[in-house]
Amino acid sequence: MSRKKLRYKSYHTQTALGVVVQQSAIRAFIRQHVTRDQLADDLQMLRAARRKGGRLSEDGGFQGKGALRVAGYAAHEAYEQLFRSYVPGHGGAIADHVLPGTNITVHQAVAVYGPVYVARATINCRRDLPTPNATRKNAAQLNAAFDPQGKLDIGLPPEKRCFVLLLTRRDPQDIGAYEAIDIAVLMSDFSGFSLYEDADTFLAGYGEVNAESVPDQQAAPNMGIKLRGKVQPFTGGEHGEGQGDEGDTQKGSG
C-alpha cells in the first residue's frame, strides 16, 4: 500500500475514533447531570401526552389532516403542562427566557439540569434536522465544547454546557403514538448532529437499575388536560403543511 493511501486510511481511522470518543464524552456529560429517572419520566410524559392528543382527536370525530393537527396540538399542550409542573419538583428548573449561566435567549420552555438544557422538537424522518427556530439555533451554540471545529465565539465562560433535543416522530399508523423518540445534540453551527441516538437505547446506557425505580408506562403523571383559552386555530406546526403535525410554542422570532 502506498504512503498516500496509508496516510488517508490513518486519517479516516483517527477521525472515526475521534467521533466515537466525542460521542462517549457527550453521553457521559448528559448522564452526569440528567438522571435516568428524569429522562425516563420525560419520555413517559411525551408518550402519555400523545396518547391523550390521539384520544381527543378521535373523540372529536376529526379525520385526515384535521385529525393530525388536533392530535398534535392537544399533545403539545398536554406535554407543555406536564413538563412545566413536573420538572421543577424533580431536580430541574424551567427556563423560557434566558438559559441560566448564559446570554442565550429562548422562546420555548427548556428544562435546566445544571449545565444541561433539554427541549423537544418534531421531525418527520430519522436524522432530520429540526426547524432552526431562534431557540434551537441560539442554544445549539452551547454545544461548541463537544464540536471544537464549529466553535463560535459567543462571549461565554469556558465551562462545558450541552443543549439536548428530544426529537419526536409520530407513528404513521397510530395517531396516538410516536414511531420513535430520539435524543440529539446539535452541532454548534446547526449543520448536523454531534450525537444522535434512540432515546430508549440512550436510557438503557445508564446501566442496571432497581426495577422499582423504572416508571410504569401506565402510571403517567396526571393527564388531565385543559387547553388554553382563546387559542388560535392550530395550522400545521413548525414544519409547514403536510410535514410535522405538532407546533412548538414560540414567542417573538422563536
Q: How does this structure look, described?
A:
By secondary structure, the chain is α+β, with helices and mostly antiparallel strands. The protein has 5 helices and 6 strands, in the order αααβββαβββα. It has helices spanning 3-33, 36-59, 64-86, 134-139, 199-204, and strands at 93-95, 110-113, 116-122, 162-170, 178-186, 193-198. Strands 1-2-3-4-5-6 form a 6-stranded mixed beta sheet. Helix 2 (36-59) runs antiparallel to helix 3. The radius of gyration is 19 Å and the shape is globular.
Give the gist of this structure.
The chain contains five helices and six strands; from the N terminus they run αααβββαβββα.
Instruction: Kindly state the percentage of residues in helix.
Output: 25-40%
Rg calculated over all Cα atoms? 19 Å
Low-pLDDT residue intervals, each spanning 5 or more residues: 4-18, 150-157, 208-220, 227-245, 247-254
Shape descriptor: globular
Order of helices and strands: HHHEEEHEEEH
Q: Give me the number of helical elements.
A: 5
Secondary-structure-based class equals alpha+beta
Read across the widest sheet, the strand sequence of neighbours is 1-2-3-4-5-6
Q: How much is the average pLDDT? A: 79
Q: Please provide the count of β strands.
A: 6
Distance between the first and last residues' Cα: 53 Å
Please summarize the sheet with the most strands: 6 strands, mixed
Our estimate of the beta-strand percent is 5-15%
Annotate the secondary structure layout:
Blueprint: H1 3-33, H2 36-59, H3 64-86, E1 93-95, E2 110-113, E3 116-122, H4 134-139, E4 162-170, E5 178-186, E6 193-198, H5 199-204
Parallel strand pairs: 3-4
Antiparallel strand pairs: 1-2, 2-3, 4-5, 5-6
Helix pairs in contact: 2-3
